[in-house]
Amino acid sequence: MSESTATARLSETERRLVETNGIEIIDETERTARPADLFWPWFAANVSVFGISYASYVFGFGINFTQALIVTVIGVVASFLACGIIAIAGKRGSAPTMVLSRAAFGVKGQKVPGVFSWLISMGWETFLAIMAVLATATVFTQLGWGGGTTTKVLACAVIAALIVAASVAGYHTIMRLQSILTWLTGAATIAYILMTLDRIDMAAVTSREPGSVESVIGALVLLMTGFGLGWINIAADWSRYQRRDASGGAIVLWNTLGGALAPTLLVLYGLLLIGSQPELEAGIVNDPIGTLATILPIWFLVPFLLAAVLALVSGAVLGIYSSGLTLLSLGIDIPRPAAALVDGTILTLGTIWVVFFAQSFLAPFQSFLITLGVPIAAWAGILMADVALRRRDYDERALFDPRGRYGDWNWTAIGLMVLAALVGWGLVINTFADAAAWNNWQGYLLSPLGLGGKEGTWAWANLGVLVALAIGFVGWLTLGRAIVRRQEND
Questions:
Q1: How is this protein annotated for GO cellular component (predicted)?
Q2: What global pTM score does this model have?
Q3: CA angle 265–268–272, rounded 5-degree value
């Protein structure tokens, strides 16, 4: 094939409105992305004023500003660094994250982590849509334009339509949209900071008493699960269009920079703002974006709302797109756009239920997030170790053939994930026992290990997420080394 012919085909592909690629291997002629291109989708999905509200949850652990600053930088950057490591797999195999996971778990065994991945993706994107609807209602109320049922119905319809339409369109459309949204939402976020700078009171911020080691670890885990670990199961979905000769280090760098830059700065500003205005904490619990809007001048509410909603939509689009790919990897035989539409329908129904019928959504969601975060952390540890162990690109044909070198079920990896999850669940507690009583079974190892039981101070540290990640990573580095070498020499 001549260079001019390949270029012509690439241009035709990039002009398509709807991406037709599903979980199959991306053709070489379409793999033209550069590592720096990864900055845009990750930055756009995370440059949201919602990041400011995380300061409220961090201070909720009873730590002071210095401690909060340290855990913010470490937690956010480390969690997106983990995403960057897994993104290397996308370049090596040009397939979605959960398909590449088959190399470690087996072609059929991958369905075990795949189910957890799909659930956590659906939970995240629904959560973002819910916040966008509630923020719209709150801002409309402040403007005197209503904010009741009619506003919520219209907001729900428009937001769901935007999310579903972009995710159905696919990779090329999303990449273009994200590069535009980055500038719009970034500008509005900077304007928000400039308009609220006069509310910063450093004396109030620095007056908080330091918290215990357990409290610091708890805040660290919250930030890791709320940011990078919440995206880690889709990290390779956006790097599968990378050139085969792209630098792995550059992929890690741009993925980490794009994901971590905005949240780190926004949470740090949130520590200053909410540390100065503690009355904001109560409202943030049920309506983070809307509460942050209450301190803005009336004339800026509409631009703020548009930017905030677009940022949340941006994050939800990435989630829907990837959850559709995960659905396909589980064996659902439908086109990729149809899979995105199925997940979009579920998102819409979930948003309607929470906005119009549920009494509280944030507490059950956080309980749900920590619960799913444990097995996903275990899976992430295994996959990061798998990326570190491999010296060659993936056998792309074998990723779809149970009789190939990766086999159908890798019981070593599956058993390791189950073990890590069981240990991890034993070391976390349901911090929302009243709102999510169905989740009170966790924390069963806290007493046997002498950590004070479910009422002790270590219970709030949520050590289980970090322990599950460590067990998965160290375990596969140890047990998977011979398996990977055998696969690569087959």
A1: plasma membrane
A2: 0.85
A3: 135
